[in-house]
């Protein structure tokens, strides 16, 4: 069942920049031809578990069966679970889980489970070499998101989300997938090809972070298989891998009795079950089945005894000295993992554990906010890889006095172990869980099938069940009498009892810690600190002061799309509201205001990234951070702040009953901001500690410097270094941000299920009550990033990571604004064609990079500043190869147009992403934001699907010439310190990845040329 442990306060955006709106109504049903009819000629399933038979997932459990799932167990041992789900309409999500991961590998097979995952996509019974990506794209799936796989220590799972499903596509998906799972081609040629890609993936994961991860794994799981089994494997075992060895691993573990297939989608469950049985029913394993190994238990060193202070003896301790990483200390109380009977009582215990952890974490956060000796600290219980049940305590010391930070954290925990929490503390955390579980019930009808499928796969992995949201809520509300101080104290103490305590400390300073001091710091007595306990003080929204005098509505008219209304207030604030039932109980709110990055100059630029972290925490009106947390208790309130090219944004995903209060908080932040200094100090400390970590890898340098370099060293896009941060003060923060909150137009968007007239009135009393805004000065509005002029010579930056790591980037300038938005959309098609070709050249043919990427940024709020970027992480000697390959692809695209098949592989997934996304409110909000000042966004919305799904080779040819030939790109190389850029390889060394144009295409190109 595995209940939630905590709701996230931040909104995770559903859509990336590519998730554009579709010109189909969100309320419309999926086209009839996209649904899978009951009368499909598929054999009727015979292995469904019906009647009084306990479904295989629920054996040994009294958790009520989720009857929307249909379970089956076939004679060959394969088990399945299927259900109908129409979110999004027309999609079917298929998961195939093999009960074998890196923990099942022999010593000389390390990395084989993951290598085999790659090989199944390389070639199989119905797919030729390297055909899988293209095949799934032709079915409308985006490789990497809709078609992917993962290898963990305990399993290998294949994930496919097939959109716009019909009978032919559904059958074809099962056919192709069955060939991959049952009959992969594990030849020497294929092993050699995928080995290079896996080694590239391993190389890209290397560096300081990976060294710490390896040390952490060896330390915490000493004596267990998990200590020496990383799914990526070792260089030695991967280089020694051959077809016979990989086939041997496959034969032992890829067997029907080790396989679970989960399908959730827009089709009748019996049809889905029939397809599983049709394509996997006669599957039989080859050779002798593998015997699952003993994963081992965490154990204390022989003869070790627990001290009077600790509940378990101290075992392995690890100290990592990494000059570019900030200090971090984690210790864990380890217990053996055992399979449980997933009962109601067991889940009540998990909920009590979750409440206990939440109470401690709230106290630790309060201590950090108040100026503690640590930046953050947290407690979490976790079952890891069926190897251990552990309670982890993690903290980040602010200085080299790590002993003081550890003692301060332990003192807060000691108080939680010594005395029960107050009932008020328990009730506060219980209210947080209740709103999460209640919201899941409200959202059940719009829960995506892909999420449901993933949840069931995860349940199989941890050997537990799944429960309907109503069951989870009922269990939680039914155990309220157990949420008392005595029981929470008992569960808290249980969290810190175990077999052994292990710990790892990461420090940038050599000699700062040794095993003796480390052990002493962990085992020393600490003074119980109850001062972090939070006083229970109820705050009601009704007690808060008004934002101002309610405003007057001067205009209220239909926007012209769906039933969206535009409302203008007399103070200049404009709103777009859409009350609908597409997502029951859910409301998305976004506030756009001000000038975004345009508002900063060289002097104030350092305060931009600090604002993203500290602005919300600095409070509003009478509410500081603690008060904001308290007033949000039992509510679904969000407060995400972001800085875009030309606008600031507040975003939240809330509930129907909370949207009015959400609007108050956003408006009050603009109208009566508070300026608490502690969040600024904490953000500054975090930035200082994090800065050196960027230098540890090419990826870190990209994150730190790429946008800065692409904008011709514009200080607004620089990551603040310690020297810049030294000048930061809370007073300076306020001086910069206070006028920005009062500057520029305000647009409020409210999309979801709510009482329209009540929210219009709330808008009038909140945003309508704000004072008139200060205009954005012309010189600020005109600030658009420049593009660097390099003459084509690469810019070189250096990292301090592994010597075999590098990165390369090519960026072409494009444009911006909505006036040319159709061109931007067509350019996205061209970019994706480029991406496929670069993937083929660098990954499939050369094995030089695991995941090269090409993407387009087209800022709609600016008239320019757009760019097309191609990047890859690779070995240093391959950097010139990357530049040459990118140049060759760019030149070819401007000379020979893409083939019809290339375009179909791009436009089909793009169109399906649009169709799927258009069923959600955030999708429409994303595409209509800014429409109150730029009405063209409404007009261009109508052509969106066509712009992304229809094009011609001639258009691609013209765009490639415009942006790849007529523009001089920026080239950036990131190589290890002390190395020089390698020489450019000869043109003959670059693979030809462009499909030959057809005769008809050549004729069209000649016509264009004339």
From TrEMBL:
Q: Which residues form the Peptidase M16 C-terminal domain?
A: 243-429, 729-906
Coiled-coil positions are: none
Q: Does the keyword Cell cycle apply?
A: no
For this UniProt record, give its keywords in alphabetical order, as a comma-separated list: Hydrolase, Metalloprotease, Protease, Signal, Zinc
Sorted alphabetically, which InterPro entries does this protein's record hold?
Metalloenz_LuxS/M16, Pept_M16_N, Peptidase_M16, Peptidase_M16_C
- Example GO molecular function term? metal ion binding
Q: What's a single GO BP term from this record? A: proteolysis
Q: Where is the Peptidase M16 N-terminal domain?
A: 91-204
Is Signal given among the entry's keywords?
yes
* Region Disordered, annotated ranges: 286-307
State the signal peptide span. Answer: 1-21
What family, per the record? Belongs to the peptidase M16 family.
Know the name of this protein?
Answer: Peptidase M16
């Amino acid at each position: 069942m595995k209940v939630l442990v905590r709701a996230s306060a931040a909104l995770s955006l559903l859509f990336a920049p590519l998730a554009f709106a579709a010109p189909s109504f969100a309320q419309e049903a999926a086209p009839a031809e996209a649904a899978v009819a009951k009368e499909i000629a598929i054999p009727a399933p015979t292995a469904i578990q019906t009647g009084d038979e306990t479904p295989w997932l629920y054996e040994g459990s009294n958790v009520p069966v989720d009857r929307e799932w249909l379970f089956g167990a076939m004679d060959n041992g394969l088990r399945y679970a299927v259900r109908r789900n129409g979110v999004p309409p027309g999609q079917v999500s298929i998961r195939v889980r093999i009960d074998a991961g890196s923990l099942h590998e022999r010593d000389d097979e390390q990395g084989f489970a993951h290598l085999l995952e790659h090989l199944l996509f390389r070639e199989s019974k119905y797919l030729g070499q390297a055909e899988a990506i293209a095949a799934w794209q032709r079915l409308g799936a985006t490789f990497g998101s809709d078609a992917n796989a993962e290898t963990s220590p305990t399993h290998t799972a294949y994930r496919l989300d097939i959109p716009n499903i019909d009978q032919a596509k559904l059958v074809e998906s099962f056919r192709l997938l069955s060939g991959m799972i049952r009959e992969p081609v594990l030849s020497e040629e294929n092993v050699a090809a995928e080995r290079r890609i896996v080694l590239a993936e391993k190389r890209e994961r290397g560096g300081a972070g990976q060294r710490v991860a390896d040390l952490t794994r060896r330390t915490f799981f000493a004596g267990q298989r998990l200590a020496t089994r990383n799914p990526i494997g070792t260089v030695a075992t991967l280089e020694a891998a051959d077809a016979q060895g990989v086939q041997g691993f496959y034969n032992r573990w890829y067997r029907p009795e080790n396989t679970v297939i989960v399908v959730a989608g827009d089709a009748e469950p019996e049809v889905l079950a029939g397809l599983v049985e049709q394509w996997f029913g006669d599957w039989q394993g080859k050779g002798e089945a593998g015997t699952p190994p003993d994963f081992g238990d965490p154990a204390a060193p022989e003869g070790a005894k627990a001290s009077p202070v600790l509940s378990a003896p101290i075992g392995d301790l690890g100290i990592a000295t990494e000059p570019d990483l900030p200090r971090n200390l984690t210790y864990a109380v380890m217990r053996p993992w055992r399979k449980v009977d997933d009962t109601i009582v067991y889940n009540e215990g998990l909920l009590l554990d979750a409440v206990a952890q939440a109470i401690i974490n709230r106290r630790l956060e309060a201590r950090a906010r108040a100026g503690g000796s640590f930046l953050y600290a947290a407690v979490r219980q976790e079952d890891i890889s069926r190897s251990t049940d552990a309670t982890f305590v993690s903290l980040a010391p602010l200085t080299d006095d790590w002993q003081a930070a550890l003692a301060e954290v332990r003192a807060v925990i000691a108080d939680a172990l010594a005395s029960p929490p107050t009932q008020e503390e328990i009730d506060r955390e219980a209210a947080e869980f209740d709103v999460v579980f209640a919201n899941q019930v409200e959202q059940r009808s719009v829960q995506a099938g892909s999420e449901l499928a993933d949840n069931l796969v995860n349940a199989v992995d941890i050997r537990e069940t799944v429960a309907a949201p109503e069951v989870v809520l009922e269990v939680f509300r039914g155990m309220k009498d157990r949420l008392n101080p005595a029981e929470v104290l008992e569960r808290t103490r249980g969290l810190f009892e175990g077999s052994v305590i292990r710990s790892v400390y990461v420090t940038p300073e050599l000699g700062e810690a040794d095993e003796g001091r480390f052990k002493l710091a962990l085992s020393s007595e600490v003074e119980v600190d109850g001062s972090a306990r939070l006083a229970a003080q109820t705050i009601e929204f009704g007690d808060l002061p008004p934002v101002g005098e309610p405003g007057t509505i001067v205009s209220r008219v239909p926007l012209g799309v769906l039933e969206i209304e535009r409302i203008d207030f007399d103070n200049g604030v404009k709103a777009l509201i859409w009350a609908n039932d597409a997502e029951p109980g859910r409301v998305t709110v976004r506030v756009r205001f001000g000038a975004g990055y345009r508002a900063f100059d060289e002097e104030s630029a350092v305060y931009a990234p600090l604002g993203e972290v500290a602005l919300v925490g600095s409070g509003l009106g009478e509410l500081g951070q603690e008060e904001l947390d308290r007033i949000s208790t039992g509510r679904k309130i969000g407060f995400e702040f972001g800085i875009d090219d030309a606008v600031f944004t507040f975003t939240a995903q809330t509930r129907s009953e909370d949207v009015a209060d959400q609007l108050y908080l956003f408006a009050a932040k603009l109208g009566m901001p508070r300026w608490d200094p502690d969040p600024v100090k904490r953000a500054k400390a975090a930035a200082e500690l994090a800065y050196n970590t960027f230098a540890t890898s090419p990826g870190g340098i990209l994150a730190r410097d790429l946008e800065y370099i692409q904008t011709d060293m514009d200080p607004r896009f620089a990551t603040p270094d310690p020297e810049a941060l030294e000048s930061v003060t809370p007073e300076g923060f306020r001086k910069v941000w206070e006028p920005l909150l009062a500057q520029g137009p305000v647009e409020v968007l409210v999309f979801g299920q709510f009482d329209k007239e009540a929210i219009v009135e709330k808008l009038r009393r909140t945003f309508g009550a704000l004072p008139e805004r200060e205009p954005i000065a012309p010189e600020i509005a005109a600030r658009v990033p420049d593009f660097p002029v390099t003459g084509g010579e690469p810019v070189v930056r250096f990292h301090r990571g592994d010597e075999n790591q590098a990165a390369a980037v090519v960026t072409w300038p494009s444009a911006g604004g909505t006036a040319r938005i159709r061109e931007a959309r067509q350019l996205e098609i061209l970019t994706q064609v480029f991406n496929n070709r670069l993937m083929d050249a660098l990954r499939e043919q050369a094995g030089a990079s695991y995941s090269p990427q090409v993407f387009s940024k087209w800022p709609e709020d600016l008239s320019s500043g757009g760019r097309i970027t191609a990047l890859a992480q690779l070995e240093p000697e391959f950097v010139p190869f990357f530049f040459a390959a990118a140049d060759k692809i760019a030149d070819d695209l401007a000379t020979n147009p893409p083939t019809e098949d290339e375009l179909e592989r791009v436009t089909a997934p793009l169109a399906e992403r649009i169709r799927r996304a258009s069923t959600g409110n955030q999708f429409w909000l994303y595409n209509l934001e800014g429409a109150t000042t730029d009405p063209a966004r409404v007009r261009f919305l109508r052509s969106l699907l066509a712009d992304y799904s229809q094009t011609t080779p001639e258009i691609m040819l013209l765009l490639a010439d415009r942006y790849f030939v007529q523009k001089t790109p920026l080239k950036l190389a990131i190589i290890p310190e002390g190395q020089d850029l390698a020489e450019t390889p000869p043109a003959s060394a670059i693979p030809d990845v462009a499909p030959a144009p057809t005769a008809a295409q050549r004729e069209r190109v000649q016509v264009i040329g004339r």
